[in-house]
Amino acid sequence: MGRLVVVSNRVPSPREVTQAAGGLTVGLADAIKGQPTLWFGWSGSTQGRDGADPEPGIVRKGTVTFATIDLTARQHKGFYQGFSNAILWPVCHYRVGLMQYSRDELEVYLEVNALFARILAPLLEPDDTVWVQDYQLFPLGAALRREGVKTRIGFFLHIPFPPEQLFRALPGADLLLTDLSGYDLIGVQTAQDAGNLRGALQAVGVDATVGAFPIGIDPDGFARQAVRGEASKEMGRLTQALAGRALILGVDRLDYSKGIPERFLGFERLLKRFPAHRGKVSFLQVAPVSRGDVAEYKSLRRQLDELAGRINGEWAEIDWIPLRYITRPMPRKVLASVHRRATVGLVTPLRDGMNLVAKEYVAAQNPDDPGVLVLSKFAGAAPELSDAVMVNPLDPDEIAEALDLALSMPRKERIRRWEAMNEAVHRVTAASWARDFLAALAAMPAR
Ligand code: GDG
Predict the structure, then answer these.
(1) What whole-number distance in Å separates Cα of residue 207 and Cα of residue 312?
(2) Residue 447 forms part of a structural domain
(3) Is 249 near ligand 1, meaning CB less than 6 Å away?
(4) Residues 188 and 124 occupy one common structural domain
(5) Three-state DSSP state, 239
(6) With 50 as the cut, is the pLDDT of residue 20 above it?
(7) Model confidence at 307, in pLDDT bands (50, 70, 90)?
(8) 441 pLDDT exceeds 80?
(9) Quick one: 323 and 211 in the same domain?
């Protein structure tokens, strides 16, 4: 069997792979265990210079070789900040109105994909299997084919794929769809995404194989961390601060797709409409800043600062703060225990490819006294976690009613719902996701 070649915009550090922190890394870490692997992508540095192609930096760790290239500041801005995060990201999350389209940035996006292909192609061997990750790299498969690459190439899209008409509002959409023909297999998160993508491919006459491969987590590992962290000093401080109150928890990258303002408004509606919870419940939102140099993210942060200030100003008591809001990342092991402590996990994206936080919340619960997951029906995780309390996050009253229901749910029902969800979280894990995708890719006919 040949090597596995993973391509992603950012390449994890060798340490991150061995410690397997996030979903993608956990899944792949398992798939690459003992298997010769090449991991290729951007180094994270913008020290590249226009004019000459960069030399890949090579680092070997066990059976994994990491090959990374620098981008220029211009490339990083056009490819990553611009076309990937200010154009493709909003469109794929059904927010065409937020798209900041620029033809120059589309061109830099194509240029960087072609550059990736030019540097990667000579590193490939005939029996390698290439697995390309995510929306930054839609055109990479086709670019590799233009370099003469014949091996199997698969693609996985971690974010949603919108309905055809919506996606094709993006200038350049047909080009991106046509380029998907470079892949032997395209994986998306849900049946809905698969249907949307098939519709779009059909509309432009592209014949490609699309399948739904929902991503999972390492539920046992996360549960162990949640238990282990319970005795930490941070958890002691949290217990003290809560003083016996119920805890509602939200955890997300600070991103407009996650529905954080909607969540704040839903919590405020709970205080307004259900006075019994006043003074009895605290809401903690962990929202580490991400993509802080994209305009839309700056304005979201301002909006949340203002909302949090207003809600606390209006509802706080001398001995009670309703809402805590932290924009710094929290260490993973602390986070796992905070999940376990939370009475309610509140996950309200307006659109989300999967949403691993929902699965992590389930995995972290105490089986004898589990909390309740309140989940947006627009998360990719919704079909699998149908025993959550489902909400449409665009209606603050629905969030308020769901929170009231969750906060007063009898233990027996909490256990019933949690057991069903915990089974789902164990049915598809990060490791089984990677295994299933790679098995399906291996079964595709060779070119
Ligand atoms: C994309 C898709 C899809 C969050 N805050 C902290 C922290 N996190 C961790 C969570 C979770 C991960 O980050 C976030 O994963 P999500 O799936 O929720 O969201 P995206 O980052 O948008 O991921 C998404 C995913 O790709 C995988 O395919 O599910 O739909 O958008 O693991 O726990 N971790 C730490 N501190 C924090 O403050 N340590």
Answers:
(1) 54
(2) no
(3) no
(4) yes
(5) helix
(6) no
(7) very high
(8) yes
(9) no
